[in-house]
UniProtKB/TrEMBL annotation:
Organismal lineage: Bacteria, Pseudomonadati, Myxococcota, Polyangia, Polyangiales
UniProt similarity note: Belongs to the ABC transporter superfamily.
Nucleotide-binding is among the record's keywords: yes
UniProt-listed PANTHER family: ABC TRANSPORTER, ATP-BINDING PROTEIN
Organism of derivation: Polyangium spumosum
Keywords: ATP-binding, Nucleotide-binding, Transport
Gene3D superfamilies per the UniProt record, alphabetical: P-loop containing nucleotide triphosphate hydrolases
Start and end residues of each ABC transporter domain: 4-238
The organism's place on the tree of life at top rank: Bacteria
GO molecular function, one term: ATP binding
Name used for this protein in its record: ATP-binding cassette domain-containing protein
Length: 310
């Protein structure tokens, strides 16, 4: 079963009676499927349509056309909603509540019986042990973000929709959150992330979609989007005769002794390596060259345009 399925999904804001005009199209025939158990990251510029799509998944926004299914059901189906854990980008928490009070209220809304142990377990998982009796109003942004994640995790939902999950969290906290998300995947949950922190998205997700103008420009495994079958990164031990390597067709890479070369097949790659050795270079590292998501995003937007919805 698919965790998320969108077919020809469109959403237009405004433009109807009594207003005149075509309205603003936030989603323009979006097609996307996310398999169960995947970790999917949706990236794009502000206004690409990411927020509208998330609202469609949650049943908050009804599409103008097309179909969206969550865990095989309509997003407005209570059975589907019960299996979704959501962390919003703009997280508003009751300042007068303690973490236990807040999570207990969320558990009641989710219909979780006898949730005291589950509440305290999730508090511990997100690193807030010892803060149970403290009022949320005194929490830092990172602590509030951790608490919001705990709320999303309550009850073990099968789909986690996380909007900027590590925003405001320090580096060690981000590592802890990545560990928690890995645990959730291990038990079979699907992750759907929307984040501007592309490096974090690369670390968490195995599939990526690039959204622009309400359309999906690219989608697939992160290795396929960021990697290259014919480009290699080679590292040579110092000292390196850079001029000799450049003359052979190598290009300087990032870092000391790092060079990049395009080779259509293993034979061509070995010819480059043999030439480097004849020039006195000593190879100590070889790998496929991998671009980061920033490069992939910039390339996709350059080809597909960057205007969009909400």
């Amino acid at each position: 079963m698919l965790a998320i399925e969108a077919r020809g999904l469109r959403k237009t804001y405004g433009g109807g009676w009594p207003r005149r005009g075509a309205g603003r199209e936030a989603l323009a025939g979006l097609d996307l499927v996310v398999p169960e158990g995947a970790a999917f990251g949706l990236i794009g510029l502000n206004g690409a349509g990411k927020t509208t799509f998330i609202k469609s998944l949650l049943g908050v926004v009804r599409p103008s056309a097309g179909v969206v299914r969550v865990l095989g059901k309509d997003p407005e189906d209570p059975a589907a909603r019960a299996q979704i854990g959501y962390l919003p980008e703009r997280l508003f928490l009751p300042h007068a509540f303690t973490p236990v009070q807040f999570l207990s209220s969320v558990a009641r809304l989710k219909g979780l019986p006898r949730a005291d142990d589950e509440v305290r377990r999730q508090i511990g998982r997100v690193g807030l042990s010892g803060e149970e009796a403290r009022r949320i109003g005194g929490f830092s942004k990172g602590m509030r973000q951790r608490l919001g994640l705990a709320a999303a995790l309550l009850g073990g939902p099968m789909l986690l929709v996380l909007d900027e999950p590590t925003d405001g969290v320090d580096p060690l906290g981000r590592a802890e959150i990545r560990r928690i998300l890995a645990e959730e995947r291990a038990r079979g949950a699907t992750l759907f992330l929307n984040s501007h922190l592309l490096a974090e998205t690369e670390r968490v997700c195995d599939r990526i979609g690039i959204l622009s103008g309400g359309r999906l420009l690219r989608e697939g495994p992160i290795e396929a989007l960021c990697g290259s079958e014919t480009r290699y990164r080679l590292t040579f031990a110092p000292p390196v005769d850079a001029a000799a390597l450049l003359a052979l067709g190598f290009r300087a890479g990032e870092g000391e002794g790092v060079f990049v070369v395009d080779a259509p097949d293993p034979s061509a790659l070995n010819e480059y390596i043999d030439g480097a050795r004849r020039a006195g270079a000593r190879l100590v590292g070889l790998a496929h060259d991998v671009r980061d998501l920033e490069e992939v995003l910039a390339e996709a937007l350059g080809q597909g345009g960057g205007q969009g919805g909400a």
